[in-house]
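ARCHIVE CARD
CATEGORY: sequence design from structure
SOURCE FIELD: tokenized fold
FIELD CONTENT:
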């Protein structure tokens, strides 16, 4: 090998070192490599996220109207029932005896007392006819001085007494007649006894799910005590306490999505149906009721759920992630824009705000490159793009 190539090989490491040093110097002059976000138009959702629980909007407390002993129980917690389904049954022997007694009394009235009253009326009418005939005979005889005045007066008294008995018998027949007051009273007593017997069977007043059960067969129950609690069908709702800092955008009718902790793969649509009139001062939260669009069989009262309420939406908005916004005050903020390799400060107007991104309504155009950390305006930088969020 000639001497000239050997000299070139001897200087090759030095040339490489000079090239690397030159590249580093150039990069330093161009500034540090920094990540930037590119402003772009996209869909923006504003949401309020909170945890809550499933509750029943209509909880029916079921009791007994009678004092009695529980004979049998037909349901337990969690059972679904339809309106009219049997829940509990009380001992019915006493009420059954009262029904039989009232039925016997009604039968006694129609088959015995009513015929007896009619027969008694016929007897007193015959007695009255005889008394009136005797009075007429004696009044005729007294004119011929064949009987004394005392005898006439005695006949008149007998006729008056027979007439009074006849009037009393007529009243008794009317009272015992079909549709009369005594039959009506007997029928009412029988109906009341039958109603009391029916109340020994405690049934569901509406369709729903049994929530609690407080009695067992053999227990003595009293009127007014809650024996069962029933959550009406279609009455479940979601109650979420929302931090008062997030309630500004909430409104009735806004759509929401609910996920139960027990069923994380099932999304349940709902809407805001009620907003409490006051904030809880101890927790700083406002109670929001979410109404379900349809019945959800797997939901149970007391379940823990997560809810996201959509409080605003933009289908095509200039959006920036919140981490590129600095000095946010009201609806204004500052951003750091890279222009021609240098950092420049800009002021922007904010619109709809989301949990991770915000709408820019003025001060910026799509395609602008923005820093995610603070650098001095005027600094030279090299950019490393990432998609807008």
């Amino acid at each position: 090998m000639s001497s000239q190539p050997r000299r070139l090989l001897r200087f090759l490491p030095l040339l490489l070192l000079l090239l690397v040093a030159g590249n580093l110097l150039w990069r330093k002059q161009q500034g540090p490599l920094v990540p930037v976000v590119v402003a772009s138009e996209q869909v923006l959702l504003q949401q309020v996220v909170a945890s809550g629980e499933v509750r029943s909007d209509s909880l029916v407390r079921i009791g007994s109207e009678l004092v009695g002993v529980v004979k049998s129980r037909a349901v337990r917690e969690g059972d679904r029932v339809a309106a009219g389904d049997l829940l509990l049954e009380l001992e019915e022997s006493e009420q059954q005896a009262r029904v039989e007694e009232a039925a016997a009394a009604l039968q006694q009235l129609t088959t015995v007392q009513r015929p007896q009253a009619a027969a008694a009326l016929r007897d007193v009418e015959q007695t009255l006819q005889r008394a009136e005939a005797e009075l007429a005979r004696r009044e005729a005889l007294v004119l011929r001085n064949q009987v004394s005045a005392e005898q006439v007066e005695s006949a008149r008294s007998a006729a008056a007494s027979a007439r009074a008995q006849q009037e009393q018998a007529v009243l008794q027949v009317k009272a015992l007649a079909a549709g009369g007051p005594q039959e009506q009273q007997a029928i009412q007593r029988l109906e009341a006894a039958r109603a009391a017997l029916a109340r020994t069977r405690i049934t569901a007043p509406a369709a729903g799910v049994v929530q609690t059960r407080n009695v067992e067969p053999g227990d003595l129950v009293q009127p007014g005590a809650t024996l069962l609690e029933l959550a009406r069908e279609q009455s479940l709702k979601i109650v979420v306490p929302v931090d008062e800092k997030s309630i500004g955008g909430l409104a009735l009718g806004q759509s929401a999505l609910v996920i139960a902790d027990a069923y994380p793969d099932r999304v349940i649509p709902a809407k805001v149906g009620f907003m409490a009139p006051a904030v809880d001062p101890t927790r700083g939260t406002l109670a929001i009721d979410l109404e379900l669009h349809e019945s959800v069989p797997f939901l149970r009262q007391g379940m823990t759920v997560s809810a996201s309420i959509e409080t605003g939406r933009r289908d095509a908005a200039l959006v920036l992630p919140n981490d590129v916004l600095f000095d946010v005050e009201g609806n204004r903020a500052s951003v750091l824009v890279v222009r021609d390799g240098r950092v420049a400060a800009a002021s922007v107007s904010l619109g709809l705000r989301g949990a991770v991104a915000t709408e820019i309504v003025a001060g910026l155009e799509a395609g602008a490159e923005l820093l995610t950390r603070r650098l001095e305006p005027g600094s030279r930088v090299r950019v490393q793009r990432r998609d807008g969020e």
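CARD ANNOTATION: The two ends are 62 Å apart (CA to CA). The helical segments are 3-30, 93-143, 149-176, 181-198.
SHELF: design records, drawer C
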